[in-house]
Design goal:
mainly alpha
């Protein structure tokens, strides 16, 4: 019984960490791409709707990449 609760606690902690990594990856991708569109020389220094949509897509891709990286790393640690 105690062992089962311990396993459930480990799973909940793992999901919480996965969620934090996903949020951090999304925000880093979003902010990096917005900064690129806002400050890169030669581009108009205006954040328009297209830049926001592209930044959201980059944020989603960054989140996916971080989660894949974390799952691979966590899989290696479990062995």
């Amino acid at each position: 019984m105690v062992e089962q609760q311990h396993q459930q606690g480990r799973g909940a902690s793992r999901e919480a960490r996965r969620r934090r990594i996903g949020v951090a990856g999304f925000l880093c991708g979003l902010l990096a791409s917005l900064a690129f569109f806002g400050f890169f020389p030669g581009l108009p220094h205006v954040i328009d709707a297209g830049a926001v949509i592209v930044s959201l897509v980059v944020g989603v891709l960054a989140r996916w990449g971080c989660l894949v990286w974390w799952e691979r790393r966590a899989g290696r640690d479990d062995r």
